[in-house]
Amino acid sequence: MIEPDQSLDALVHQVIGVAIDVHRALGPGFQEGLYEEAMAYELSLRGIAFDRQVELPIHYKDRVVGRHRLDLLVEDQLVLELKAVDHLADIHTAQILSYLRATQRPLGLLINFNASLLKRGIKRVVLSPPLGDLGALAAHPST
Q: Which domain holds residue 10?
């Protein structure tokens, strides 16, 4: 696995700080869209560039078979997938890994705002380059 560079790692820490501030102010219990709106506002206040609801064409072989939207793309580098669920499940990790592959971005954060302590609701997900014939994808809890 190849870790992202220091500038991307610094961005991750900034974004985690934003998420913690949003969670401290709002707490758990709201719908995902409310947290997305608050994250967008706080990112704007801090001068961090982002795009919301980025439309992704989904390819199968040489054909676009559909489109999907990811929640936030920060500084055109970091994919954020926001949740407001009881517990993060394997399907949520699979979802952000699919977004990383589709956007060809190396790193994403899966953030569950329904966690009582936000640190427990953040998962750092790294898309590793293929190793031989096998693709290696790794998900790591935030530290």
A: 6-141
